[in-house]
């Protein structure tokens, strides 16, 4: 039997000084290659869950295993994409993309080639020498994603990466993300507060209920990949979005 | 371009008008030259005594520069320690505020006892003048890094030194330059005031401050005017240099950059 890519067993998190836990009794197994969206009302611990998986903060209860290992020992497999592009303002786009490789001590010449290839992939070659402040929101986010992909992650953790973008840009970025995934086949954990985005991207949507955050529902999204604008126009998609929205509303009410 | 030349013409006109007003005050109220010399006298005195003026200028500039550089080096090192430990920061930060509020003239006698009047004493006064703003601003820069960026570095198993060198230090540079800009304005003032109280009095070692005292004792009013102009130029020069280095290092990525929206 294969080990799940991400395994959470009765995971709970309580922050120091607060009386109620943020997350409680989370059991979840994600197989390799799955695209899992996590939605839920704000304050239900979506981001906390992602940071627990990344090993950026420790669990209060339960166990998390990434490919059978502890999260902080499995960081080489993972990349994290934050809500803000979190670029270093003093570095050009290409230097920002090279950051992760640099931190992991890869040789410089190798980085340059890899960086150029990544910029090509996300369509930013023409602004390689620009500084972040000169970029639009969408371009900043693409830089951030290119940086995350630089270390060839198997598991991508994305915390509302497109939340600050306008709807048109967001839709396009969603399609680009799926296109990249087809080539590189990562496992993705994607936090969002948009039901439409969650359904469009994922093979499985997890609905969290708040106070304390726990898994209320799981929705399998059996829409075929590759997904395009046609997917958005289909009845099956509409039906899934409606159902998920309903479940989200119910989860909120509890 | 047209606007700029118009501004230049206007500036020259205003300057000439001020000179004429100066001259008129002397003529109308029969002001004696030892009280207020006319612009022409000031100009000729300045020209005549240019070598003296320049020598004094250089001495003061050197005191201010060494004091300022020492404050930058020490200030950044202290800020690194402060940024490293909240505990140390809470305990020691109040003293930097204290350093800023202590009237430097009250400490001058002590400095003279410790290091003697002269270059070292003035340098030390400049150093004390400049240090607080460097420490306060750089510390602020080092600790105000976005928590997500720190976590990003953690995700890629960055060492503490990498976080400092590739994240905290570059992030603090604009803050450091705010500190340097403030300090550079204060450095020239500090050096001149320092010289008034603790400057060298040996021949050929007196800076602008000392020259001011000497010119006052000899009632060389016109030369006093030249010295004031030189002192102002020194302050402006330091400030301008600080701005230039700031621009040189930061103009690519910081506020001063020209913004161009792509896409």
Descriptive account of the structure:
The complex is a heterodimer of chains A (254) and B (263). Chain A has helices at residues 46-54, 93-103, 108-121, 137-149, 167-184, 195-201, 229-233, 235-253; strands spanning 6-13, 23-30, 35-39, 61-66, 78-81, 155-159, 187-191, 204-209, 214-220. Chain A is α/β, with parallel strands linked by helices. In chain A, strands 5-6-7-3-8-9 form a 6-stranded mixed β-sheet, with helices on both faces. In chain A, strands 2-1-4 form a 3-stranded antiparallel β-sheet, covered by helices on one side. The longest helix of chain A has 19 residues, at 235-253. Chain A starts with 5 loop residues before the first strand and ends with a helix. Chain B has 2 domains: 8-36; 38-250, MetI-like fold (Orthogonal Bundle). Chain B has 10 helices and no strands. The longest helix of chain B is centred in the C-terminal third of the chain and has 39 residues, at 160-198. Chain B is globular. Residues 256-263 of chain B have low confidence and may be disordered. Chain A binds chain B through residues 51, 54, 56, 75-76, 78-80, 82-84, 86, 88-91, 99-100, 102-104, 127, 130-136, 138-139, 151, and chain B through 146, 148-149, 151-158, 162, 166-167, 170-171, 173, 252-254, 257, 259-263.
Summarize the structure.
The complex is a heterodimer of chains A (254) and B (263). Chain A has 254 residues and is an alpha/beta fold.
Give the termini distance of chain B in whole angstroms.
Answer: 30 Å
CATH superfamily of the largest domain in chain B: MetI-like
CATH architecture of the largest domain in chain B: Orthogonal Bundle
Backbone CA Rg of chain A: 18 Å
Label the CATH architecture of chain A: 3-Layer(aba) Sandwich
**Total count of strands of chain B:** 0
Average residue pLDDT of chain B: 88
State Rg of chain B. Answer: 23 Å
């Amino acid at each position: 039997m294969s080990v799940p890519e991400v395994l959470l067993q009765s995971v709970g998190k309580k922050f120091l000084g607060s009386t109620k836990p943020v997350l409680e009794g989370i059991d979840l197994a994600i197989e390799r290659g799955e695209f899992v969206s996590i939605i839920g009302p704000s304050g239900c611990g979506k981001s906390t869950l992602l940071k627990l998986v990344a090993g950026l903060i420790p669990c209060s209860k339960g166990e998390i295993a990434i490919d059978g290992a502890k999260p902080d020992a499995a960081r080489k497999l993972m990349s994290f994409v934050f809500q803000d592009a979190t670029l270093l303002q003093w570095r050009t786009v290409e230097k920002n993309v090279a950051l992760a490789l640099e931190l992991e001590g890869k040789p410089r010449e190798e980085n340059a080639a890899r960086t150029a290839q990544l910029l090509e992939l996300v369509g930013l070659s023409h602004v390689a020498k620009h500084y972040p402040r000169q970029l639009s929101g969408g371009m900043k986010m693409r830089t951030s994603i290119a940086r995350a992909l630089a270390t060839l992650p198997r598991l991508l953790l994305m915390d509302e990466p497109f939340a600050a973008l306008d709807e048109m840009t967001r839709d396009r970025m969603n399609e680009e993300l799926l296109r990249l995934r087809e080539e590189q086949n990562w496992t993705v954990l994607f936090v969002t507060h948009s039901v439409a985005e969650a359904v469009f991207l994922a093979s499985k949507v997890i609905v969290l209920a708040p106070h304390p955050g726990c898994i209320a529902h799981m929705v399998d999204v059996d829409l075929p990949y590759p997904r395009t604008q046609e997917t958005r126009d289909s009845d099956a998609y509409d039906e899934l979005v409606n159902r998920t929205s309903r479940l989200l509303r119910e989860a909120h009410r509890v | 371009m047209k606007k700029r030349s118009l501004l230049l013409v206007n500036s020259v006109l205003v300057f000439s008008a001020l000179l004429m007003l100066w001259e008129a005050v002397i003529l109308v109220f029969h002001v004696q030259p030892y009280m207020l010399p006319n612009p022409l006298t000031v100009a000729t005195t300045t020209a005549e005594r240019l070598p003296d003026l320049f020598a004094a200028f250089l001495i003061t500039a050197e005191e201010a520069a060494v004091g300022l550089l020492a404050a930058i080096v020490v200030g950044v090192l202290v800020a690194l320690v402060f940024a490293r430990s909240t505990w140390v920061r809470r305990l020691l930060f109040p003293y930097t505020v204290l350093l800023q509020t202590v009237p430097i003239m009250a400490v001058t006698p002590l400095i003279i006892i410790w290091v003697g009047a002269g270059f070292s004493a003035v340098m030390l006064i400049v150093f004390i003048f400049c240090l607080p703003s460097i420490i306060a601003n750089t510390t602020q820069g080092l600790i105000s890094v976005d928590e997500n960026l720190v976590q990003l570095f953690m995700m890629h198993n960055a060492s503490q030194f990498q976080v400092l060198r590739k994240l905290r230090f570059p992030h603090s540079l604009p803050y450091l330059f705010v500190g340097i800009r403030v300090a550079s304005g204060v450095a020239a003032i500090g050096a001149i005031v320092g010289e008034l109280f603790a400057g060298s009095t040996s021949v050929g070692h007196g800076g602008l401050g000392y020259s001011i005292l000497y010119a006052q004792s000899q009632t060389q009013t016109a030369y006093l005017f030249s010295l004031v102009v030189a002192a102002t130029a020194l302050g402006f020069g330091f400030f301008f240099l600080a701005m230039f280095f700031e621009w040189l290092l930061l103009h690519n990525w910081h506020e001063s950059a020209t913004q161009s929206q792509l896409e």
